[in-house]
Each structure stands twice: as C-alpha cells, then as structure tokens.
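Quick note —
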Amino acid sequence: MSDHDGPRVVTEDLYAVLTTPIVERDEMMKSLPDHLDYQVSLEERGIMFAAGPLFDKDGVPPRAGLIIIRANSFAEADEIAKADPMHARGLRAYTLDKWQINEGGFTLKVQFANRTTALD
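Predicted structure written out below.
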C-alpha cells in the first residue's frame, strides 16, 4: 500500500481559551464593550477563528465563553488571552488548551443575486 492509498490527515493546531466569570455579572458587563472591541480586533487581524458564549441546558445566562485563536505557540496564545480586557482586569479566569483539528469541515454558500451568505 502506498502513502497515497489511505485517507490523508491534515491537521491544524489552534488554541482554545475557555473563559469563566469570577465576579458578579453586573461588574463584568461594564467591561463588555472593551472585550468585544478586543475580540473584533483579533478577528480583523486573522487571529480569531471563532468565539462565543457557552450555555447549559437552562440557557441563561451563559456559563462560560470559548475563544478559538490562531497562534504559533502556547506562550503566544497565552499572551493573546491575557490581553483580553476581561482577563487583564481580573473579571474572568481562563484555561488554555491546544486544539488539533483532524476532521470536520464547513460549507460556505454565497448568493450574489440577493447578497446573502450562509455557513453550514
């Protein structure tokens, strides 16, 4: 069997930041605009892969957040996570894990006529 006969595994290493609140929600919400500005800056610079809140089965409020970032090392990913205003101000704690993507995919549909996009 040659190297080309079986499935080819292509991996992508990203970093997962699981962020959890450590202060009351009202106090944390005061820094939400700065946090969101930081998230948008990461997205614009191509650092952020995805981010959003995590909910339990009851749904409100979110119990944590998950931020997936592109970085060259744990140290670089940690600096990016530390710079988030929620973390820098001691409002949220985080854990950092390297995430190796081995399988999966997504579909992007762009319709020019009605100027819509859909991600599945």
